[in-house]
Amino acid sequence: MNFEFSEDQEMLREQARRFLADRSSTKVVRRILESDAPFDADLWKGIVEMGWTGTAIPEEFGGLGLGHLELCVIAEELGRALAPVPFASSVYLATEALLLAGTNEQKQAWLPKLAAGEAIGTVAVAEGPTQPTARNIAATFENGKLSGTKVPVPDGDIADFAIVLARAGAEGERGLVLALVDLKGPGVARKAVKTIDPTRSQAEITFTDAPAEAVGAVGEGWANLTQVQDRAAVLIAFEQVGGAQVALEMAKDYALQRYAFGRAIASFQAIKHKLADVYVAIELARSNAYYGAWALSAGSPELPVAAAGARVAATEAFHQASKESIQTHGGMGYTWEGDCHLYYRRSKHLGLKLGSARTWKEHLISRLEARNAA
Predict the structure, then answer these.
(1) Domains of the chain (ranges, CATH numbers)
(2) Spatial separation of the C-alpha atoms in residues 89 and 120, rounded to whole Å
(3) pLDDT (tens digit, 9 = 90+) per residue, 242-251?
(4) Which of 37, 81, 329, 363 has the least C-beta neighbours within 10 A?
(5) Contacts (Cβ under 8 Å, ≥6 apart) of 200
């Protein structure tokens, strides 16, 4: 079993890193933070022109028809660059939901637009601070009409459509369905929600008898959502690994340049041991992410376990790396002028995007127990 990326995939990585080095930087991230813009439109346009939004979309629907391994490569580079674009919501979530459960008509209608950057999609699940479960979803979908409130919805303030988890009658998992709704249509009211990382916007969306159509059958909504989130967990893990790696590099470079008591602080055991722990955490996360990438690309039944493992390891690694980078930079690490807080913001955002680390640890335990029992 070979977990290494191919030569062509490594070439894609180099191309992506060069492109993002030219078009995305912490200056771009700061510009979004200091303005009311929810994302960088110029960077998004460039990403669309590179074809990244259609990476895993089949050619028959206007995509590149490459695959999830290539998407993992791109995700890691986007994570390194802290790219302030709605890539995760539109590509990892909405696109994957349509590929998984959409009808041929729904795919024909939306996938070409997603690939061409003519539409931005998202998936709406949460209904407040409580972790969503198969029993507490209150949004309803009846007779082609969607009602309820979803918050926070990733990039919900800028998305053109959303795939919403709603209840279509029965209680529990049996009554759940995914419903596709045009966010520019009637019965939709939305407002931006302030978060720790405004470069990846969030929104509150209220649906009042909004016209919608089912994506998949009633009763399959929770199962379909779980599969979509498993796929997204692997891709976001690569973003987290990319961000964590840069945070570690920043801390290392500063420790080598900053002198105290006549020598570089990198020579002090307190710094060396701390950064060594971060390195170990990142390599553990990377290995789990690679395992997840293999399971995703191969359509392996190992994906649920691999995705949960990747999610847990990458979330912890990015948080640890961004936190310790601030500590290593000392007083400078806490300032607005420093870049450390940008990575810390993103680590907190990605750590909650698909549910908390605690939730994914519970997923990992339950899935391992189920696998062992089988």
Answers:
(1) 7-115 (1.10.540.10), 121-219 (2.40.110.10), 222-373 (1.20.140.10)
(2) 8
(3) 999 999 999 9
(4) 37
(5) 39, 84, 86, 88, 154, 155, 346, 349
